[in-house]
Amino acid sequence: MKRINRILALGGIMAASLASVAQNTNSGYFLEGYSYRYQMNPAFGNDRHFVSMPALGNLNLAVRGNLHLSSIVYSLNGRTVLFTNPGISASEVMGNLSDKNRIGANVKLNILSAGFKAFGGYNTVSVNARSNVNAIVPKAFFSLAKEGISNKTYDIRNLRARAMGYAELALNHSHDIKALPGLRIGASVKALVGVANFDAYFNEADLTLGENEWIARTNADIYANIGGFQYEHETNKKGGEYVSGMNLDGDGSIGPNGFGVAFDLGATYQWGDFNFSVAALDLGFISFSDTRHATTGGTRTVNTDAYIFNADDDASNSFSNEWKRLRDNLEELY
Asked: Which of 185, 51, 72, 217 is CA-nearest to residue 125?
C-alpha cells in the first residue's frame, strides 16, 4: 500500500509537470532499482556500483507533439489508409489538425557509463550520443495535400524543421542533506560536442490558385552545420545562380563542429510515505561553426498571368521563350 501511495503521488506531480512544460514521460522514473534514473533527475542515486557495456547500456527514445498518428492514418472499410484517400472527407481531416502541428523526437544512446559511491554521495560518469528532431507543419500544408488544386489560397508560412546531433560527456553527483532529513540534491555538468545541425524555415510561403491565374510566393532560409557539407549550385538562363542540391562530398569530414555546456539540477524529498521529485534538465547551449546558409534572398513571386504564350516561333513571347522564362522564375522560387 505504501508503494502504491508513493507511485500515485509521484505520478500526480509528474502529470502536473507534463501539463505545464510538455516533458516526456519515462517509465524508468518509477523503478527504484533502475541504474539510469539519474538521467531523469540528477538527485537520484543507487545502492550499488555499476558499469555499462559500450552501446549496450541504455537507449532512450521519446516522441512528442500535437500531431497524432490518428490524424494522418485512418481506417476505411477495414483498410488502413492515409488522410489523402478520397474516402476520408476533408472536413474530418481538417477537424483533427491544429493550426500549427508539432512533432518531435529525441534519441539518447548511452555509449559508456559508470556509477560509484564517493565524495559523500553517489557519482556517475557517462558518454552519450544524442539527436533531436523537431518540425512545425501548418494546417494549410495538409489542406493542400488533401484538397489538391482548388480555387483558394494556401498559406504555409512558419513551416519549420530542425535536426541536431551531438555527443555528451556528463559528470553527476548527488547526496543527502543531513541538516534537512529526507532531502537529497544532485547536479550534472555536461560537456557537449556538436556534430550536425540543420534548420530550415519558411518566413513566407503561400500559393493562390485562382480561376485565371496562379500566384506563388516564397521567402525561406536554410542553415546547416555539418562537416564536409556543401550546397550544389547551377546557373539558370538569366545568369542567376541557385541551389540545386546538397552533398557531403565537400572539404572536411563529419566530425566535431561545435562545442557547448549544459547542466542538470534536481532534488528529491521524502515525507512519510510520499516521495517528491523535481528536476530541470539540459540547461545549456551548443555553439556550432562552419555555417552553410541558403536563402531565397527575400520574397520571390511567380504570377502565371505575367506569361503570354504566342504560337509564332519568331515572336519574343513564343511558347519556347515564355516557357524558359517561367522555368527560370520557378527556379528562383525555391
From this structure: 51
DSSP H stretches of helix in 111-202: 139-147
Provide the grid cell at 20.
505545464
Average pLDDT over residues 140-148: 82
Structure pTM?
Answer: 0.74
pLDDT in tens, 250-296: 555 667 888 999 999 999 999 888 889 999 999 999 999 888 898 88
Query: How far is Cα 324 from Cα 240, in angstroms, rounded to an integer?
Result: 13
Task: Name residue 33's amino acid.
Answer: G
Q: Which three cell numbers stand for residue 228?
A: 564536409
User: How many contiguous H segments (helices) and E segments (strands) does the chain have?
Assistant: 4, 16
* pLDDT, tens digit (0-9, with 9 covering 90-100), for 99-115: 889 999 999 988 999 99
- The conformation of residue 239, written as its DSSP 8-state character, comes to S
Q: What are the φ/ψ torsions at residue 299 (nearest 5 degrees)? A: -80, 130
Count of C-beta atoms within a 10 Å radius of residue 64: 16
Dmax (CA) for the chain in angstroms is 94
Three cell numbers, residue 311: 504560337
Pairing relation of β-strands 183-209 and 153-155?
A: antiparallel
User: Residue 183: is it exposed, middle or buried by C-beta count within 10 angstroms (0-12/13-18/19+)?
Assistant: middle
Q: Which of 13-17, 204-208, 215-219 has the lowest mean pLDDT?
A: 13-17
Point out which residues pair with 108 in neighbouring strands: 60, 130
Instruction: Report d(CA 4, CA 306) in Å as an integer.
Output: 71
Quote helix, strand, coil % in the chain, to nearest 5. 20, 50, 30
Average pLDDT over residues 173-189: 93
Nearest to 137 by CA among 205, 50, 47, 184: 205
